[in-house]
Amino acid sequence: MKINIFKLIAWGMICSCLFSCIKNNKGEFERSTPEKEGVRTEGIIRFIEEAQADSIDMHSLMILRHGKIIAEGWWYPYKSDINHIMHSVTKTFISTAIGFAIDEKLITVNDKVISFFPDDLPAEISPNLEALTVKHLLTMSVGQEPAPFIFISEPNWVKAFLATPIINPPGSVFLYNSYSSHMLSAIIQKITGQTVSDYLKPRLFEPLNIKNIQWEIDPQGINMGGWGMSIKTEDMAKLGQFYLQQGTWNGKQLLSKEWINEASSVQIYQPANLTDEDKSNDEWVQGYGYQIWRCTHNAYRADGSNGQFIIVMPEQDAVVVITENVMGDAQKVLKLVFKYLLPSMTDNEYPDNKEQNKKLTSILSSLLIPSPFHTNEKTEIMKDTTLSYSMDINNLQLQNISFKFDKEANCQLTLTIGGTSYEFPFGLDTWRYGETDKLSPYFLFPRRNPVGLAPFTVVGYGSWIKKDELNLRLLYVNDYQEENYVCHFDGNKISITVSNTGDIWRKEQLILTGIIQ
Asked: 436 and 392 in one domain?
């Protein structure tokens, strides 16, 4: 049978097109090369190299141009299929939910906040509380000073928020206030009878194919409005592209352009009296929209604590997504975006630079966070051995600890805390993955209610520093917190120095002691 090669090629092109359409309909992105989308690969390489040279603790990077992914990478042991904590990126999803509710004429930005919660109002309603509107919540201009901090022990966060005095007239002063975002979540639940997560599911998550969302709740079952969402890097990119496309997805207008433009425009400045020179190099004072930060270069961003960013660049038709852990100046990476990535984006299509593309591919495929420690080559290490210890009374309620070493010297650590046992895998000079129900040392622990979030993904890394000293690092990759155990073995006794990056132990080092069972 003769085969018409031209028909075969044509059929292949049709199938390819159909496949592409199917992928798009499922909410997935096409992949392309930087040069095909008018981006110089060298700029991406320099961005990554300088971020690493500056010891920025990067976890993931995704760059989109013209709706296509042109570069993506994860710093191992972070991976593409693992959810990452969003912190205040959650706020932009809340704002998006408010936009849908306004489109559906369920509320307006001028509605009074007290109208939604008649049963939670204080005995005396001040003029400022009476004047408080949805828009004031959206723009962080409630007027409370300082902003409230409500502990998880408080059963009704809405009531606690409304009872907090409003010192300044609403709308007059910008003051970052995560509980104003939580009030927006409570409003959505009040008017729809659904959590924000359930409300967004048919409107945003399903059309964009955002799945397996983890989202904390308050004691009343309200999704945290100011933080608490965990999603994947590509899901972050989908929200950014959705905003860049002004609320359209696969040719359908899901959310009105008017809302996208209003939400991403300056609604209030922080502070209001800065000169253009003062603002020229500071990403935190470019203005604030509806739970969205304005940037230099006419860009805007969803912004989460310690460096979770969805950066939308309308003039460049680009989206940049970053997850990291920067304890301090999170502007570092933003400045690198505008120093290297933005200038690399042009209106021209370039021939693929094979040498640069090969270098970028190599860099992106070999990203990893630095090893925390390494076994001394001359050290004797334990294999095919199990050691169990009964611990002396301690503040962590750690009752027993056991170490099970396999023939490769990998370690299975078991902690018995308050009568519950937790197992953690540690590779010898490598990361090993596992899951646990044990809470991480989350730095927002006093206001955390992790109902439904477990199990948490963890990775463990172990090294023998000396013959009698084993160092273990447990990394919670969903929220980048870590626990460290420096274990000293002394005959039938053990001494363990414990520390972490959260505040459950107030960042103190605790020394625990025990005896072999």
From this structure: yes
Which carries the bigger pLDDT value, residue 21 or residue 333?
333
H or E, element range at 475: strand 469-476
359 membership: H or E segment, kind and range: helix 354-365
Strand order across the beta sheet in which 318-324 lies = 30-31, 68-74, 58-65, 318-324, 308-313, 300-304, 293-294
Backbone angles phi, psi at 59, to 5 degrees: -115, -40
Judgement on whether residues 131 and 197 belong to the same structural domain of the protein: yes
With respect to residue 289, please indicate whether it lies within any of the assigned structural domains.
Answer: yes
pLDDT in tens, 376-427: 988 989 999 999 999 999 988 999 999 999 999 999 999 999 999 999 999 9
Q: What is the mean pLDDT of residues 150-157?
A: 94
Does residue 489 share a domain with residue 449? yes
Specify the residue for token string 């611990």. 391
Same-domain check for residues 332 and 394 = no
CB contact at 8 A, 413 and 403? yes
pLDDT range class, residue 4, cuts 50, 70, 90? very low
Question: Under DSSP, is residue 349 helix (H, G, I), strand (E, B) or coil?
Answer: coil
> Which of 309, 341, 370 is a domain's end point?
370
Alpha-helical segments (H) within 164-208: 178-192, 196-200
Tokens of 100: 């849908």
Give how many domains the chain has, as a whole number.
4
The mean per-residue pLDDT over the stretch 439-461 comes to 86
Q: pTM for the complete prediction?
A: 0.92
Packed helices 41-53 and 354-365: angle between N→C axes, nearest 10 degrees:
40
